[in-house]
Design goal:
Organism: Paractinoplanes toevensis
Shape: globular
Helix content: 25-40%
Function: Key enzyme in the regulation of glycerol uptake and metabolism. Catalyzes the phosphorylation of glycerol to yield sn-glycerol 3-phosphate.
Enzyme class: transferase
Pfam families: FGGY_C, FGGY_N
Protein name: Glycerol kinase
Oligomer: single chain
Strand content: 15-25%
Number of helices: 16
């Protein structure tokens, strides 16, 4: 009698929703359960989550995915977790109740704390730059603003964690308080070289070490689940973008992926030595499998990608649905000399000019809404080019292909534009759920469900591939025009600052 098929359960805890997905040995999606959760904005710049609700949702979604697949706990080989990064939870060790709403990663209430930090110290230790984005100042803010919390933290009566820590603590019935190296590398508290909490950073941020989780690899058995899927090993945790890197099987130095959604997150595997960026990128941990050497990564974020399409739809009313942007852009052969720099909240990597503002340049009476649509898609392409150029310069590695995922990859014209401006193939995988797949892969490796990295590569199947088709002279000329448009976005802000017209 053959034994029943076994599966890996991935929990993808994201910014706006949580998903539970079951994968089989061929990396095929067997069942999916998803639920959105609200974000609250109690004051300008504040972004909060209800961490207790997210845990309740997770329990419900696990049960729904299991019912959908028609399986029991004995058929789940392991659980892997991918999570929104930097979002901060502090909870009571004894009761498990959060002491305050979770502070979301986009929250900017800690700007004064971040600006007081020494960029040289933070950069040298963590590969990051002081910013409200990361967890450290969020923890510091809670300790400063909740009466008695700092004293309790020093005694270890309250615990800090990112969403992976929160879920693992609850899944194990409060037995395990830990995080993995990818999430720890986004707190602004971990030394990239030692992979340990850094005493000088804790001192600068006035955070007691007693409240911190232990740091583990991304793929190992952390403990067993208790009330939910009792006895099933919890065997992986990764920040969502690192999980996508792993799910895309970017295992060699120089391999890169970009996730295109509201914005774009581009990560390049740089190997076992951290590469310190001098071109406006972040240095981070890519993943660590058990006791193997760490794979480091460079990361560049594009602030506005899909949200530019949303603006064209909702703000300008040029299209009725996001998918119509491709059809409209296809009505013209080129952009007609029009370029859009979507610096709605400044320019992100590699420029980091928060004062810059969005511009449309090259407008003439010849320009139609088709040309504008084309310029919208090209804006994502050229922003990707800027980040890739910075990565190539920092790493000394030349990108040979870009692996892509996310909602915008359904736009075939955009994929061709990216291939053209990068002059490398763009590859979209068959399994679109690369974040969840990365968590599943890491968990499966930890328990022997998959044998090695080659086993994972064998599961990869290509759904689409776009080859560059633009002449080199045209590519160079178009890029120069884009760079002048970026200069205009910065110039516009400086003119505005002086009240000139």
């Amino acid at each position: 009698m053959t034994s029943p098929e076994r599966y890996i359960l991935a929990i993808d805890q994201g910014t706006t929703s949580t998903r539970c997905i079951l994968f089989d040995r061929r990396a095929t999606v067997v069942a999916v359960a998803r639920a959105e959760h609200p974000q609250s904005y109690p004051r300008p710049g504040w972004v909060e989550h209800d961490a207790a609700r997210i845990w309740r949702d997770t329990q419900r979604l696990i049960a729904r995915a299991m019912r959908s697949a028609g399986i029991g706990a004995s058929q789940v080989a392991a659980i892997g977790i991918a999570n929104q990064r930097e979002t901060t939870v502090v909870w009571d060790r004894a009761t498990g109740v959060p002491v305050a709403p979770a502070i979301g990663w986009p929250d900017t209430r800690t700007s004064s704390l971040a600006s007081a930090l020494d960029p040289a110290l933070i950069g040298a230790k963590t590969g990051l730059q002081p910013a409200t984005y990361f967890s450290a100042t969020k923890v510091q803010w809670l300790l400063d603003h909740i009466p008695g919390l700092r004293a309790r933290a020093e005694k270890g009566e309250v615990l800090f964690g990112t969403m992976d820590s929160w879920l693992i603590w609850n899944l194990t019935g409060g037995r395990e308080h830990l995080t993995d190296v990818t999430n720890a590398s986004r707190t602004m508290l971990m030394d990239l070289s030692t992979l340990a909490w850094d005493a000088s950073l804790l001192d600068v941020c006035t955070i007691p070490q007693a409240m911190l989780p232990s740091i583990r690899s991304s793929s190992e058995v952390y403990g067993a689940a208790s009330s939910v899927l009792p006895g099933v090993p919890i065997a992986a945790a990764m920040g969502d973008q690192q999980a996508a890197l792993f799910g895309q099987t970017c295992f060699a130095a120089g391999d890169a992926k970009c996730t295109y959604g509201t914005g774009g997150f581009l990560l390049m595997n740089t190997g076992s030595t951290p590469v310190r960026s001098t071109h406006g990128l972040l240095t981070t941990v890519g993943y660590r499998i058990g006791s193997d050497p760490v794979a480091y990564a460079l990361e560049g974020s594009i602030a506005v990608a899909g949200s530019l399409v949303q603006w064209v739809r909702d703000g300008l009313g040029l299209i009725g649905t996001a998918s119509e942007i491709e059809t409209l852009a296809g009505t013209v052969a080129d952009n007609g000399g029009c370029y859009i720099v979507p610096a709605f909240s400044g320019l992100f990597a590699p420029h980091w000019r928060s004062e810059a503002r969005g511009v449309i340049v090259g407008l003439t009476s010849y320009i139609t809404k088709g040309h504008l649509a084309r310029a919208v898609l090209e804006a994502t392409g050229w922003q990707t080019r800027e980040v890739v150029d910075a990565m190539n310069a920092d790493s000394g590695l030349a990108l040979t292909a870009l692996n892509v995922d996310g909602g915008m990859t359904a736009d075939n014209m955009l994929m061709q534009i990216i291939a053209d401006v990068l002059d490398v193939p763009v590859v979209r995988p068959m399994v679109a759920e690369t974040v969840s797949l990365g968590a599943a892969y890491a968990a499966g490796l930890a328990v022997g469900y998959w044998s090695d990295l080659q086993d994972l590569r064998n599961n990869r199947h290509r759904a689409g591939r776009w080859l560059p088709a633009m002449e080199a002279t045209r590519r160079a000329a178009e890029y120069r025009k884009w760079q002048r448009a970026v200069d205009a976005a910065v110039l516009f802000s400086s003119v505005g600052d002086h009240g000139q017209t």
